[in-house]
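Exercise 7.
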Amino acid sequence: MNDDRAVVVGADGGEPSLQAVRWAAEEAARRGAPLRVLLAYYWRTPLAAFAPASELAETARRSADTLVADIAREASAAHPEADVRAEAVQGHPAEALLTAGEDAALLVLGTRGRHATVGAVLGSVSQQVAVHARCPVVVVRGRTDPTGDVLVGVDGSEPSDRALALAFDEARQRGCGLVAVRAVETPLVPVPIGAPPVVYDTAEVQRALSEQAVEQVARASERFPDVRWECHGVAGDAADVLVERSQRAQLTVVGSRGHGGFAGLLLGSVGLRLLHRAHCPVLIAHVPRGAPGQEEPS
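Solution. The predicted structure, written as tokens, is:
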């Protein structure tokens, strides 16, 4: 894929962000896209009462520039073919990354920052960006070796159509297969008080939804005839099913929200749970700014 837009990765020097930088460098090299390593920093500290603000600001800027340059050199050493650019900006990390993501092909994040609470699974910056970004976002977690297929959750919704398109493209680039999963939970039908219970055939519901999923994946596959794929209808909670299967995947892809979402919801519960529990990197298929049919935020 040739794309002038950059792969942007947030960095702060902590091991989760370094893992994200290494993953992003490989992804940028695969795409033939530049890699932008972005570090956002603050400089205001209690020492401001004892030292000139300009002096503290300059010290913070030099430290941030040195750190992000070191991180960029590590990325270049790991993937010499990647076009790596480094930048340190003053400001809140989530805001800086969301701004950078407006023109990015992909935003890449670690699971948490250097100052995350002990025991935290997903840092607040990563979650804010994953929820609010206007381009696809990958949170790098779990194992990052390029083995296994690309895993994608489908549910017949428009967001899962976008997730399928991205998943097929990723599988094509990686030279691997695609595994689509349609998790089917027992439907809960509201029944008015005093009315007789609604009777339905659970097996028939699962069969019908699974067939719909196969048709959905088959339509998406027409643009990617060289990618082998399979589709499975599985009984169970969608997040639990995808988490379990992510143990055998190299990337898990989900839509920004599915049929379980509601107006204004930016990231469904399945996506959020995967960000906390998946065993491999997770790609959230947000719509890039300016894409056809994209709804502008209110």
